[in-house]
């Protein structure tokens, strides 16, 4: 992972809390420390540095299809399938949209390991058409190639991927850049990404007026059995799909299907993109995802940064709740470049 | 007003909150004299507790300046929202506040689209949404698009070294129908308003959220910061529920505006 995209919640620690703790609290902490050794809720070790793309986050080379159908798993009080928790994609990152384990295109850096033949890497995220390529109109394909040519030498500011400035990753890039969380409420599904949030409205309200275009678009959803179906409009399409430069326009309509497996441990994100101003025909992306929890041993912090919450009393019988520190990209609040400091 | 009797984990959590007991007592006095009376029977509830779910916004001009002030070129006059009218700065900190005021046109973190912080995000005049579960409240802020979780699951602040968060670490308990939130672990990079009022990383906030009626929340925050203030002080605003048909948050990423025009690629 590019260090420019390291998150606020993983650094700038080191200030001792001791100064604000009373003796009573210290006593409580010591007691709690003793308790922690006798139950399974000891705090997780500090998350390791993110694994490089192609290494620890590359993961699987193939993934199971999940059929749409009835949902027999647990439900929330309002009837929604309960899919809350922490998720992350299972194949690499945003380096390369159509060859996810192929690394940055035209990367001047020498790869630690040879790529090998294409068929030994995970398939394109473009699942339809069958050639794995986005059916760009000629002018748009030229723009993609131009972006790839200058990505590693951005002689103009438009060649810098906006995510490098901590702009929101948008749709669909948010689903293959860092782990994320799903929380559910009556009438809402909330996605918490490291690069912004999405609220999916389930209450049937109309989309926002067309004049409003957003980094994370506007989402209207409904549940069909095991599948959350979301219509995405009002996308400003500034985020791009990755470092390989694929893109849509502000006119794009996206139908997303989040198809959850019966065991509630995986889902496939299947999204169809329709945009006559950029593509010659609609096309579909598929991004597999898996669940992460405190039971996972030593996950990459790229995928999962949950940690057991701090209980001063007994940890609940069902195990501790999961803490996740705030998701604020460093550069959101520091201008461009990690080294830049906010003006005082 | 409820008395302070707690049991089990909540009691020990309260001990940590009560390390700033003076702040808590100030608050108790203030709430007890509130003239409003909420109709508790009509309040939305979740698991027996008040359900603050909804989209909220203040009509107060607090963000222009927390203390009483006359009008100026960049602000309307306001009586402010500080109890007693004056923020009790330490002498050196007061000098810094004056510098901040003089340079507010360029140095207010708000102007850069930064996360507003706690409590500023609450009384900044932009909507925020509360999404509530039994174990937590999620606050989604339209301005800057930050997300704050207030834990109501009986957990305490993270152990060990202090963290540095833009919005702090929020652990809460219910005191009757009032949500009492203890917030610590701040960065020093946020301001409290457009007039240069500020804090350090030693900031400690105790919030009290209480329904006055089903569409109005009385929000109080007591701020303590031994590096900046001579004593804890309290501010208070009302938050109103957005009831417009189909009202929703619309993301407001101010920090992207300098490069928005560069993307996406255009047809030649």
The count of domains of chain B is: 1
Helix content of chain B: 10-25%
Question: How does CATH name the architecture of chain B?
Answer: Beta Barrel
Q: Give the largest chain-chain interface (CB within 8 Å).
A: A-B, 76 and 67 residues
Total strands of chain A:
13
Strand residue percentage of chain B: 25-35%
**Uncertain residue segments of chain B:** 1-38
Number of helices of chain A: 2
Mean pLDDT of chain B: 87
Task: Provide mean pLDDT of chain A, rounded.
Answer: 83
CATH top-level class of chain B: Mainly Beta
Taking the alpha carbons of the first and last residues of chain A, their distance comes to 30 Å
Tally the structural domains of chain A.
1
Helix coverage percent of chain A: under 10%
Proportion of residues in β-strands of chain A: 15-25%
CATH fold descriptor of chain B: Lipocalin
Summarize the structure.
The complex is a heterodimer of chains A (344) and B (268). Chain A is mainly beta and 344 residues long.
Layout of helices and strands, plus pairs?
The complex is a heterodimer of chains A (344) and B (268).
Chain A: H1 23-38, E1 85-89, E2 126-128, H2 138-150, E3 180-185, E4 188-193, E5 196-201, E6 218-224, E7 227-233, E8 253-260, E9 266-274, E10 283-292, E11 307-308, E12 310-311, E13 322-323
Chain B: H1 8-17, H2 21-32, E1 45-46, E2 49-50, E3 54-57, H3 91-102, H4 104-107, H5 120-123, E4 128-132, E5 136-141, E6 147-151, E7 155-156, E8 169-175, E9 178-184, E10 204-213, E11 216-224, E12 233-241
Parallel strand pairs in B: 6-8
Antiparallel strand pairs in B: 1-2, 3-4, 3-12, 4-5, 5-6, 8-9, 9-10, 10-11, 11-12
What does the model show?
The complex is a heterodimer of chains A (344) and B (268). With 344 residues, chain A is mainly beta. Chain A has one domain. The N terminus and C terminus of chain A are likely disordered. Chain B contains five helices and twelve strands. Strand 12 of chain A pairs antiparallel with strand 7 of chain B, so a sheet runs across the interface.
């Amino acid at each position: 992972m590019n260090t420019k995209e390291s998150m606020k919640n993983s650094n700038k620690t080191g200030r001792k809390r001791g100064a604000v703790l009373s003796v009573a609290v210290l006593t409580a902490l010591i007691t709690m420390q003793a308790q922690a050794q006798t139950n399974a809720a000891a705090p997780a070790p500090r998350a390791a540095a993110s694994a490089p793309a192609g290494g620890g986050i590359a993961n699987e080379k193939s993934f199971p299809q999940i059929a749409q159908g009835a949902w027999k798993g647990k439900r929330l009080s309002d009837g929604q399938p309960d899919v809350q928790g922490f998720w992350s994609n299972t194949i690499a990152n945003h380096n390369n949209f159509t060859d996810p384990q192929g690394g940055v295109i035209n990367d001047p850096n020498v790869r630690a390991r040879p790529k090998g033949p294409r068929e030994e890497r995970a398939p394109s995220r473009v699942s339809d058409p069958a050639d794995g390529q986005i059916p760009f109109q000629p002018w748009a394909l030229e723009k993609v190639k131009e972006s790839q040519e200058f990505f590693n030498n951005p002689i103009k500011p438009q060649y810098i991927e906006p995510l490098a400035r901590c702009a929101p990753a948008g749709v669909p890039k948010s689903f293959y850049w860092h782990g994320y969380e799903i929380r559910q409420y009556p009438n809402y599904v909330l996605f918490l990404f490291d690069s912004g949030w999405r609220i999916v409205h389930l209450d049937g309200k109309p989309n926002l007026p067309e004049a409003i275009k957003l980094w994370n678009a506007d989402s209207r959803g409904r549940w069909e059995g095991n599948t959350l179906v979301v219509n995405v409009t009002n996308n400003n399409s500034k985020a791009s799909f990755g470092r390989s430069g694929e893109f849509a326009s502000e006119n794009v309509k996206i139908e997303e299907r989040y198809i959850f497996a019966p065991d509630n441990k995986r889902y496939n994100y299947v999204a169809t993109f329709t945009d006559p101003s950029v593509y010659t025909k609609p096309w579909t992306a598929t991004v597999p995802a898996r669940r992460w929890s405190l039971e996972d041993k030593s996950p990459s912090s790229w995928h999962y940064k949950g940690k057991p919450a701090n209980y001063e009393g007994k940890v609940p019988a069902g195990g501790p709740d999961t803490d996740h520190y705030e998701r604020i990209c460093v550069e959101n609040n520091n201008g461009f470049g990690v080294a830049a400091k906010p003006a005082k | 007003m409820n008395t302070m009797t707690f049991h089990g984990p909540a009691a020990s959590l309260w001990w940590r909150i009560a390390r700033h007991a003076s702040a808590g007592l100030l608050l108790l006095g203030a709430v007890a004299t509130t003239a409003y009376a909420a109709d508790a029977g009509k309040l939305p509830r979740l698991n027996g507790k008040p359900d603050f779910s909804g989209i909220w916004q203040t009509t107060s001009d607090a963000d222009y300046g927390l203390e009483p002030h006359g009008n100026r070129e960049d602000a309307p006059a306001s009586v402010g929202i500080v109890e007693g009218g004056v923020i009790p700065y330490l002498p050196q900190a007061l000098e810094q506040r004056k510098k901040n005021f003089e340079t507010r046109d360029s140095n207010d973190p708000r102007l850069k689209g930064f996360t507003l912080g706690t409590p500023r995000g609450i009384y900044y005049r932009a909507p925020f949404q509360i999404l509530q579960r039994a174990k937590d409240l999620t606050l989604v802020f339209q301005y800057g698009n930050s997300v704050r979780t207030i834990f109501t699951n009986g957990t305490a602040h993270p152990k060990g070294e202090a963290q540095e968060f833009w919005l702090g670490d929020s652990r809460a308990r219910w005191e009757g129908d009032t949500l009492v939130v203890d917030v610590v672990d701040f960065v020093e990079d946020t301001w409290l308003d457009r007039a240069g009022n500020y804090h350090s990383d030693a900031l400690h906030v105790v919030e009290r959220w209480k329904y006055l009626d089903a569409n109005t929340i009385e929000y109080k925050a007591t701020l303590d910061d031994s590096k900046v203030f001579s004593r804890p002080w309290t501010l208070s605003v009302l938050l109103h529920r957005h009831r417009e048909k189909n009202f929703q948050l619309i993301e407001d990423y101010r920090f992207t505006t300098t490069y928005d025009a560069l993307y996406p690629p255009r047809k030649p």
